Amino acid sequence: MKWYMLDNYDHSVNEAEFANGTKTEEVVEYFAKIKQLEVSKFKRIWRVLNENEIAAFRRKPSSERHPAGEFGDWLDMEKA
To answer: How many domains does the chain have?
Structure first.
């Protein structure tokens, strides 16, 4: 499974592939060692998400308006 390290602005800074079932804390420790920081300091600057979490994180909320407007295309009917 792919894991991503994100900065405070939610930009993907680094990614790594781990075996399925790898715990989040193990991945955090891995990225913290790359940055040569203690885990507590690492967590203040970056966060780690797996590929499932990143997909949900990047998905637009359903509350956003439809591009065609508030009511969608179904209301754009020609008047006879």
So the answer is: 1
